[in-house]
Amino acid sequence: MNTTLLLRITIAIILLTHSVFGMFDNGINDFGNLFLNQIGFAPFGVPLAWSIKLSHVAAAILLLLNKYVKLAGFVTIFVLIMGIILVHFQEGWFVVGGGRNGMEYNFLLIMVLVAIMYPNGFKKEKNKTQHL
């Protein structure tokens, strides 16, 4: 099993578990009503919360299928960066230990997604066709 496959499976599991449970325990609606609406997204907090969580589910499926990996990565990275800006940055770096609810976990997820999206680094691909 190659490293990129292992990382894609791992991120997919994280995205699915972070999203699917909230669909059944009212967590997504609570996130929309009790957080997003309160910080200025009213009356769109609940639809925005559902959009975020459904984007996680779609990204997880695409990562598992190894299809549109860069698109899934960019969308998820955008959501994670917005989470850092709106929630985690003000709480500091640490998720636990030296603090609470910080941005270190989002940072790790972003870096793993970048590694998945660019498994060979950021080198410019050379033209694979040879001219005669």
Radius of gyration: 17 Å
User: Would you tell me the structural class of the helices and strands?
Assistant: mainly alpha
Calculate the terminal CA-CA distance, rounded to whole Å: 38 Å
Helicity level: 55-70%
Unreliable stretches (pLDDT < 50, length at least 5) are none
The count of β-strands is 0
Backbone shape: globular
Q: How much β-strand is present in the residues?
A: under 5%
Kindly report the average pLDDT value. Answer: 93
Question: How many distinct helices?
Answer: 5
Main sheet specs:
none
Order of helices and strands: HHHHH
List keywords for this structure.
mainly alpha, globular
Description of the structure:
- This protein is mostly helical.
- It has 5 helices and no strands.
- The protein is globular.
- The N and C termini lie far apart (38 Å).
- The model has no long low-confidence stretch (mean pLDDT 93).
Give the secondary structure arrangement, pairings included.
Blueprint: H1 3-24, H2 27-36, H3 45-65, H4 69-88, H5 104-117
Helix pairs in contact: 1-3, 1-5, 2-3, 3-4, 4-5
In short:
By secondary structure, the chain is mostly helical. The protein is built from five helices and no strands.
